[in-house]
Design goal:
Length: 350
């Protein structure tokens, strides 16, 4: 079994030297949104979406801001920053939860990470933890200056990999008065050890590949990528983990978006493999809510980080009965349960 898992991990790490095209088509939704019941037009008196862009360390960031029904910029509203999953974009699950939060009376922002999605940055699909943490801080910078936002009532919600980076951002950035994660994914630990430690035996080999990729980039050569493969439904059905099997259907079939890709620069592994979202969890002294599906094969990551959060007395671990990791992204009954808990949590602390 261990050999089979190692072989699987090597398969998903197959590299490519292709460059991503910046000329990408948009889905039918005029805002590019691919989740259910997404906004298709801004109607007076209802939740509206405002595409915006701003600079973060000289990189153009593309974001969507969702405002509540009957939004009045002269009033003050609580706000929530929403961080998207690894490989995801603002038009998918991050947008869904941002829209639902706006329906509950919050101003919410979801932005594409630098080097990813519709945001700028070269080479494409750089995926370094420091960048993702800075993305979250950048969203806070922007949204707290947005008309109608009460900067003293700022919360943050991170989904999957965005959840791990949210924990790191909140450890030191105390603008976030309440911290929530959904289906948290500890990107660094998984990139290093493999999912459920399925790639431990290949760590030296992958570090060598990452080092060589960095050297090639420094010499002006081609950019090498990890996880840049096309997966068929048949291949996905044989995957040993729900996360990757269901992730294939979510990202490539039911909620596909042309800006969304699993691939990342091979050289990013030099930073990713030294990262652990669960270190320094004692620095979080804000109220903390961590949510996960009761059937999620990623739950061990949420549980580990939650247990290390000794710096706050206001913390809760909430399990969504029957849900897997990916199902918390879109299945109505599971989204509803997550939103009920978020409304209770942010309602109390924001």
């Amino acid at each position: 079994m261990k050999r089979k898992l190692r072989n699987y991990f090597l398969i998903i790490m197959v590299t490519s030297i292709n460059f991503i095209s910046l000329a990408q088509t948009k889905p039918a939704n005029p805002f590019g949104l691919v989740y259910g019941d997404a906004i298709t037009e801004n109607v007076s008196g209802k939740v509206n979406i405002h595409p915006v862009s701003y600079k973060l360390n000289d990189i153009d960031i593309a974001a969507n801001i969702y405002t509540p029904a009957n939004f009045d910029p002269a009033k003050k509203y609580p706000a929530v920053v929403v961080a998207h999953p690894n490989g995801g974009v603002k038009e998918q699950v991050a947008g869904l939860y941002a829209q639902r939060l706006a329906e509950s009376g919050y101003i919410a922002i979801a932005a594409d990470a630098a080097y990813q999605g519709a945001s700028g940055g070269q080479p494409r699909n750089v995926d370094k933890p420091a960048n993702r943490i800075e993305d979250i801080r950048g969203m806070a910078d922007f949204i707290t200056q947005f008309k109608g936002v009460d900067a003293a009532r700022l919360g943050v919600l991170g989904v999957c990999g965005g959840g791990g980076y949210t924990l790191k951002a909140a450890q030191t950035d105390k603008r976030f008065k309440a911290v929530a994660t959904l289906s948290m994914f500890n990107s660094g630990v998984v990139r290093r050890n493999g999912f459920m430690n399925s790639g431990v035996a290949t760590i030296p080999e992958r570090l060598k590949q990452a080092t060589e990729a960095r050297a090639l980039e420094a010499a002006g050569g081609e950019v090498r990528y990890a996880a840049d493969t096309k997966t068929t439904n048949e291949q996905a059905d044989k995957m040993p983990f729900d996360l990757y099997r269901e992730g294939h259907y979510y990202y490539h079939r039911t909620h596909a978006h042309p800006n969304s890709t699993f691939r990342y620069t091979m050289s990013s592994l030099l930073d990713l493999m030294a990262f652990d979202a669960a270190t320094n969890m004692d620095l979080i002294n804000q109220p903390l809510l961590m949510m996960a599906g009761s059937k999620a094969d990623t739950f061990y990551m949420t549980e580990s980080a939650f247990n290390l959060a000794t710096g706050t007395k206001e913390k809760e671990l909430f399990l969504i009965p029957g849900a897997t990791h990916i199902q918390t992204y879109y299945v109505p009954e599971y989204v509803e349960q997550a939103m009920n808990k978020l409304n209770e949590f942010f309602g109390k602390y924001l």
